[in-house]
Amino acid sequence: MLDAIVNRVKQFREKIYQFFPSRRDAAMELVDSLARNTQAKSVVELSLNPLHRRNYCSITRSIGEFYAGLSQEKKQRQNKQLTKILSECCSPLQKRPYHLFALDCTPNPRVFAKILSDRGIVHAPNQIYGNAPITIGSIQYGGIFT
């Protein structure tokens, strides 16, 4: 039983490793660090995880090069391929005819980023009495649906 689980994890990790177009080792260390550290509040804190042996710049570089040079169509194809890899690891469907994954919408205040393409009004907790809890920035979306 344990051997089957270990082999399944190894196969999953190999599929994910081969999926990354560049900086595969750094990307895998990021995946491991994210899986172990759920309390990090910054890239620097995440890079301090013992599973992440590189410096914090490798995190932004591996994320930044994930879609480097791809057209919108190729990005969508890549997302579908990743969704398939992740869905294969889920338990078989029982109650719903689909897999349901969480979606993260993190507001990023970017008041001075005048050329940011998706810049707009985002939520920002504001402790000053009487002020609306908003600022100028963008929303970073992350999620997988099948």
Describe this structure in words.
With 146 residues, the chain is of the alpha+beta class. It has helices at 2-19, 24-36, 43-47, 57-64, 72-88; strands at residues 103-109, 120-123, 134-143. It has five helices and three strands. The protein has a three-stranded antiparallel sheet, with no helix packed on it. Helix 1 packs across helix 2 (24-36) and helix 1 (2-19) runs antiparallel to helix 5 (72-88).
Short structural summary:
By secondary structure, this protein is α+β, with helices and mostly antiparallel strands.
Provide keyphrases for this structure.
146 residues, globular, 3-stranded antiparallel beta sheet, alpha+beta, single chain
Largest sheet: 3 strands, antiparallel
Helical stretch tally: 5
Strand content: 5-15%
Helix content: 40-55%
Mean pLDDT comes to 80
The helix/strand series, from N terminus to C terminus, equals HHHHHEEE
From the N-terminal CA to the C-terminal CA, the straight-line distance is 28 Å
How many individual domains? Answer: 2
Uncertain segments: none
How many β-strand stretches?
3
User: What would you report as the Rg, rounded to the nearest angstrom?
Assistant: 18 Å
| Helix/strand class | alpha+beta
Tell the overall outline.
globular
Reading side by side through the largest sheet, how are the strands ordered?
1-3-2
